């Protein structure tokens, strides 16, 4: 899965060699400040136990103030100062926000919305992902940076771009993007006829006669072609990946010994992260739970489980979180005392090897001046900085956690971006939200203290006793066969409604829903019948499955089907959280999947990491009072391999 192979792990050694305990620090933006502040920064970083900063993320305009005229003197000074202070640097390629001169010289690099509006500079990320001009300038700067700092003692890790797809997710509809989309489609389909077939273009007279007629799905009078839209999402993710890879190619060539990452945004529809993950040496993630959200802990746990799953359980880096409030929600509650610590330990418990913040020092001006930072406007004599300092010392006291392996779960949830994209196109029987579905299934395990991994369709499914499959709406015959095989070989699978409906081109699997899963599930869905209040319902005909739960108005709603050596459950509605919990408790009991620890009170979660020496370290998070305990755990009780327990 990892094209970086062995080299990737050697490169990672370079990163880990610079750390003696979990990475701790934040985005450091010294270009916003003067020399006196810089001196104080070093003092406060020492006090806080900072050992890693991300540097230069928005420093393109400072470093290349006019085209081709580079000024690295300021950065040299910071790199040297940080190295002297023992702080490693995750150095950004600075390409997330081009300087205004790029738009002046090349307005064609600016992204265009689906209605034709061109976006302008003045915030950030104002670049067309397909623009060869943007890429040329970005690569040129990356080359300079990589050459200059290749052997700098502070350089630990490359930080390519920043949060790809955060602001320009449904990215660009300019002519350059349209041409790139056509090239991408040619590679996928070969001929216009094959595309017509895949996109079902005979419907509504959309049949194309040449490639030139095909565009990105721009604003149109009614529902746009769903296959075109799903392909556009695929293309968008791939195109941003290509922009990332253009810079990665440079740093890999000039500094083959330095590992590479980029920070992913909070779980979003934007990028197919399973396609991205092989191209990062280590996964990085930015997490911004809302302190006002009562479900924040579970939602956050889910996103951390996704990050851990992207590279099959490899530890990942929490590259950004807020020490207290953010400033981009309508109401930005602070993190109360202790919450930053709890949130940080939650990330570590779920496999993070780093806890970094946005940002080190709170900005004086600009759009994020009210976003909290490790050093607040009021300086060191503050509650936030005191907690930052205490947390730095606490993390440093657990060096064995660094690079320890998060324990593998017995249950997994299947996540699939292409199915997500196709599911959320228009004109369906009812609105079905993919992420809500995934979160609801994850919650039933989380509430029962059952660890859950996240896997892709082509992942290592047989490692799990239980596989949850929310809304796998679009699925190829081959992928469906993998799931069937998983159950036949003894796995327990729970599939939610509106799965297996269309193929990878959003064409319905004929012969009764859910085509490729009918035999596995032992049923046929005759008709969808969502209720006026939006509740999902459908008419299910049993063909071997047994009814477990009925709809209020009668007819099977939840079914169970013994298949091969395993069991396939089907859930034809959105159970309320209590019913969902009861259902999954029963499924788990049958599948032999237990909680992380017996008898945990509500609100208490534990996760285990295993050190290289085989020591088990347990992190106990108490979400009721915010307390955290990190303790040695007893050796694991040997358990039979999943297959051995199967009938
Ligand atoms: C992230 C971004 C940071 C900062 C932060 C504020 O999405 O990468 O640069 O804007 O949000 O919450």
Automatic annotation (TrEMBL):
Catalytic reaction list: Hydrolysis of terminal non-reducing beta-D-galactose residues in beta-D-galactosides
A UniProt-annotated Pfam family: Glyco_hydro_42M
InterPro entries on file: Beta_galactosidase_Trimer, Class_I_gatase-like, GH, Glyco_hydro_42, Glyco_hydro_42_N
Presence of keyword Hydrolase: yes
Annotated EC: 3.2.1.23
Enzyme class, spelled out: hydrolase
PANTHER family assigned to the protein according to its UniProt record, in alphabetical order: BETA-GALACTOSIDASE GANA (PTHR36447:SF1)
Family: Belongs to the glycosyl hydrolase 42 family.
Name by which UniProt lists this protein: Beta-galactosidase
Species the sequence originates in: Streptomyces lasiicapitis
